[in-house]
Design brief:
419 residues; alpha/beta; Rossmann fold; 2 domains; six-stranded mixed β-sheet; 16 strands; 18% strand
Length: 419
């Protein structure tokens, strides 16, 4: 387990444990920006050191415990690591600002639903949890019934409405899959597409998006070719050869998953298939871009709008070279929970009613159905990079600044507790 709760005590009596934790948090943050590998070693060391200094019951009872189950290894590791970075950045911001103490613990699920359950059970058994952050659809669907029974808040960086359906404590903090499909339909119409081929992975997100595309796009275009592949498929040539033998299509809708996106494109281009490729937000992964070896050039997909420049600058200073995909969302999740705690409100009630919260992604409001309203963009691959196709959706200068603009690299040097 990776665990190093970073907190500032508020209204607690002095104790060796609290002082020790604050000193550890200073070391942690000062090491964060210049040397990421050293940071990882220090974080693991925190686990062993903190075990020697148990926290007093008064402090422990006031901790709000967030467990994160993320793909830190595997095909979707870049996104999971970025989410972890965003969570940790938020905890540091709150620590420096003297906000309510939050303990964050992270477990790796390697992008596997069964490992997701195991990781959650480990966190729940060893720490007890108030809230859980989980990355992507299948993992969230696996945990939602369990967290709901425990009365724990679940926030998923996913757009699948099935995760929150009929649940009080589950929330989606991502661009809705229905919104993604709406953007695909509108952009396809703008580009004049009439005949589409479609290949999807047998995974909850792509399956939902296929149904939405049928519902929203049936009057606009024809699906001339439609195939499914298993989640572990890596050889798409049999399907692509069938596609090549069909009449020409205007574009290929590629609702495939992490570990498949780049390979699918590369194999299609190698067979001489030149139709434009339409994807999902999962396309924004540097590993997929590398595995495609140039074959994703011209591909486009809907995406949640970029984080604010202030957040991006702070994030890149703390985690140079790291992916920022999902980091803003995960940062906001912690900040929203902290805001509810500061106000003394029930976290689930607050998340379902919040309006214009100034987050890393700009102003965020609840939609009232356990989801949130986000601005969206169309991203495109140009010259081997992800770029925004036009700026009609969002103008960064018109968005309010991020709530927490504290420099992560320096915690206060005074040794006192509280504010």
């Amino acid at each position: 387990m990776m665990s190093c709760p970073l907190l500032t005590s508020r209204n607690y009596p002095p104790s060796t444990a609290v002082h020790f934790r604050i000193q550890l948090s200073r070391v942690f943050t000062q090491t964060l920006a210049p040397n990421y590998e050293k940071l990882m070693r220090i974080r693991h060391s925190c686990v062993l050191l903190l075990s020697l200094f148990p926290v007093s019951n008064a402090v422990a009872e006031n901790l709000y415990r967030i467990g994160a189950v993320l793909p830190l290894t595997g095909d979707s590791a870049l996104g999971g690591q970025a989410c972890r970075n965003g969570l940790e950045l938020a905890v540091h911001d709150l620590t420096k600002a003297g906000a309510s103490p939050i303990a964050l613990e992270v477990e790796d699920n390697a992008g596997s639903a069964p490992q997701t359950v195991t990781a959650y059970q480990k966190l729940h058994a060893t720490s007890g949890l108030d809230a859980v952050v989980v990355w992507e659809d299948a993992a969230a669907l696996a945990l939602a019934p369990m967290t709901e029974r425990q009365g724990q808040v679940l926030v998923a960086t996913s757009g699948d409405r099935a995760i929150v359906a009929g649940r009080k404590h589950a929330f989606l903090y991502w661009l809705g899959l229905d919104t993604e499909v709406e953007r695909i339909v509108a952009e396809s119409k703008r580009r004049g597409y009439k005949r589409l081929a479609r290949v999807i992975t047998q995974h909850p997100g792509p399956v939902f998006m296929r149904a939405e595309l049928d519902r929203l796009g049936s009057s606009q275009f024809t699906i001339a070719f439609d195939e499914e592949v298993p989640a572990d498929a890596r050889d798409f040539r049999p399907i692509l050869l069938k596609l090549k033998q069909r009449e020409q299509v205007d574009a290929i809708v590629s609702f495939v998953w992490f570990g498949q996106i780049g390979l699918f494109a590369k194999q299609a281009r190698a067979l001489g298939i030149t139709a434009p490729i339409i994807g999902t937000d999962a396309f924004e992964d540097e590993n997929e871009l590398k595995s495609a070896d140039g074959a994703l050039e011209g591909a486009w997909f809907p995406q949640i709008a970029d984080p604010l420049p202030e957040f991006k600058q702070k994030y890149e200073a703390a985690f140079p070279g790291a992916s920022i995909y999902s980091a803003g969302n995960c940062h906001d999740i912690v900040m929203l929970i902290a805001e509810a705690l500061t106000r003394g409100e029930n976290v689930s009630d607050f998340l379902n009613t919040v309006k214009d919260f100034p987050g890393a992604l700009g102003p965020v409001s609840a939609s009232g159905d356990h989801r949130f309203v986000f601005p969206s963009i169309i991203r495109e691959v140009r010259s081997g990079k992800f770029v925004t196709a036009g700026q009609d959706e969002i103008v960064a200068s018109e968005r309010p600044a991020v709530a927490a603009t504290v420099d992560i690299r320096a915690l206060p040097q005074s040794g006192g507790e509280g504010r």
